[in-house]
Design brief:
single chain, 305 residues, alpha/beta, 6-stranded mixed β-sheet, 4-stranded parallel β-sheet, 11 helices, globular, binds pyridoxal-5'-phosphate
Length: 305
């Protein structure tokens, strides 16, 4: 089965729409601004997670009796998207979740169990070993898994899906802003050449060096064909932190643009866009774009850990 058949079978709407926006922010009239609506490619499969998973799913479709496993937190968009795909394709899936949610299952965990995913809770200490080869071999063996996808779906297998996204830009974009967590999205776009001149990653996690290093590690020996940088001053306290100011920004901006945004990923990215525009950080007349990676399901439960 090739990727196009999977896209048809899962009913994914590609290419995603490039929508021009007209925010009322100071200086906004100096720029042409777009949003790449990857959030709209599917009602359940969160935008960049399809891009990142497409190649692996294609491989699995051609493997007999594939049994998949993966890692994530209790609100993970990656696990949510992967579980939905496996349910639709009738493939078994086991996921390893950071921390014990047995007595406080999140909407995400309830969904994926409804879709037939086996959930295994790991202690936070065990979860730290998620990238260790012997640990993964032990889990694969114990749970009879043929393939273990790393956290966030970020590995080099995700690059071809990110290249497909890059190739959807038909006109020149000077600066593309996108959220960065496990870095696969940014790394995959950075190793692709296309109509985007600069990738501006918005770190949603605290810890500057860690994100840079993680991105470089993923890129590894691939040549960087599109310049990228990561900004570290828009994380609002860290990953799942959503202080009142970012929540009200999301509400206000969603309303102004008619585009749903949430505080963990897209909200921080739009906030960075607004701040950089107001400070005239981009050359006048630049074409700017935000990659809307989706992720609304993750903010269904208000309290996070
Ligand atoms: C996972 C995710 C990201 C981060 O992508 P990485 O490749 O992990 O950096 C951004 N936005 C949304 C909505 C996500 O679910």
């Amino acid at each position: 089965m090739d990727r196009q058949r999977l896209i048809t079978q899962l009913d994914i709407a590609l290419p995603s729409r490039l929508q021009q926006i007209y925010p009322t922010w100071r200086n906004a009239e100096r720029y042409t601004i777009y949003v790449k609506r990857d959030d709209l490619i599917h009602p359940v499969i969160s935008g960049n997670k399809w891009r990142k998973l497409s190649h692996t799913l294609e491989l699995m479709a051609n493997t007999e009796n594939a049994t998949l496993g993966s890692f994530g937190g209790g609100y993970s968009n990656h696990l949510h998207a992967l579980s939905f795909c496996c349910w639709q394709l009738d493939w078994p899936l086991t996921v390893f979740v950071r921390g014990d949610y047995a007595n406080r299952e999140t909407s995400m965990l309830l969904d994926i169990q409804r879709w037939g995913t086996r959930v295994v809770y790991l202690t936070k200490k065990d979860y730290q070993m998620r990238s260790s080869q012997p640990f993964c071999a032990m889990l694969s063996n114990r749970y009879a898994l043929s393939h273990l996808i790393p956290e966030g779906g970020s590995h080099q297998d995700c690059f071809s899906g990110m290249a497909a996204l890059m190739n959807e830009f038909e006109h020149k974009i000077d600066y593309l802003l996108l959220p960065v967590a496990s870095s696969g999205t940014l790394a995959g776009m950075a190793v692709t050449s296309g109509n985007v001149s600069n990738l501006v990653g918005i770190g949603v996690l605290k810890g500057a060096n860690y994100l840079e290093q993680q991105t470089r590690q993923l890129i590894d020996l691939h040549p960087v064909l599109t310049d990228y940088s990561i900004l570290h001053n828009y994380h609002f306290g860290g990953y799942a932190k959503s202080p009142e100011n970012i929540r009200s920004f999301c509400q206000h901006t969603s309303q102004m643009l008619g585009i749903p945004i949430e505080p963990v990923y897209s909200g921080k990215t739009f906030y960075a866009l607004k701040d950089l525009i107001e400070r005239a950080a981009f050359p006048i007349d630049s074409t700017l774009c935000v990659l809307h990676t989706g992720g609304l399901q993750g903010s269904r439960d208000s309290s996070k850990s």
